[in-house]
Amino acid sequence: MDQDNIELGNVFIIGELLPEVLEPAAKDLLLADTLGLENINIFIHSNGGDNNVGFALYDLIKSLKTHTTTIAMGELMSAATIALLGGDKKLASKNSEIMIHYAYMESSSEQEKDIKIDLKQLSLLNKKIVNMYVNSSNLNKKQVKKYLDKGNK
Q1: Chain-centre distance of CA 48, in angstroms?
Q2: Which residues are catalytically annotated?
Q3: Distance between CA 104 and CA 88 in Å, rounded?
Q4: 28-44: pLDDT as tens digits
Q5: Which among 74, 78, 131, 129 is positioned nearest to 101, based on CA atoms?
Q6: Which of 20-34, 44-58, 76-90, 131-145 has the lowest mean pLDDT?
Q7: CA 79 to CA 54: how far, in whole Å?
């Protein structure tokens, strides 16, 4: 926790989005939200990680009472872009690199029944991701799908 930066309304989320990154980021964001600031700047630099951590950060950022600006700096990849979508205002630094793609998963089993379940879950996850980008940007579904396809190549 960087108390001085938090008091200035600056929170940093840096590194792969893993469960252990979520707790300190959540503490910093929740503390900043109690300070009566006009805006919280959330700087994100990440090569991606766990989709569920990205969704958790998105939900947390959306729940804050204070206006938020999420800022991509350096690289912002994969699940980290979901966290970026949570901001009331979304920015990217001049030299940032952003990459989005459809989700993927390894099957939990070699059984046909289990693989079909996994595929259904993956399909639902990808629909959720498309809808999040559409609802949080000026892009339509066709445009979002085009960008997601490019990320998987």
Answers
A1: 8
A2: 78, 101
A3: 28
A4: 999 999 999 999 999 99
A5: 78
A6: 131-145
A7: 5
